[in-house]
Write a structure and sequence with these properties.
Helices cover 31% and strands 27% of the residues. It is of the alpha+beta class and 81 residues long. Strands 1-2-4-3 form a 4-stranded antiparallel beta sheet.
Length: 81
């Protein structure tokens, strides 16, 4: 059951950042998704901020980082590949 929520969250995040085709590469640390995007202007920040599991997001050193939290980020990331 929990997997469904992680998959749904991954799909919502992808939709809010301009789709899978806008992602150049992705990785994660303990708490954040770290994404390199083709076009940052495709990010719908309001949509992203309304996703239940998303705690915040920001750009840093060419990466768009989405804060999800420990134990959540790795589960959501599984649905990015």
């Amino acid at each position: 059951m929990a997997d469904k929520n992680y998959e749904k969250t991954a799909k919502e995040i992808l939709d809010a950042i301009g789709g899978k085709e806008n992602v150049v590469s992705g990785a994660h640390c303990a708490t954040r998704l770290r994404l390199v995007l083709k076009d940052d202007s495709k990010i719908n920040k309001a949509k992203l901020d309304n996703i239940e599991m998303v705690k915040g997001s920001f750009n840093n050193a060419g990466q768009f980082q989405i804060i999800l939290g420990t134990g959540i980020v790795n589960e959501v990331f599984k649905f990015f590949s």
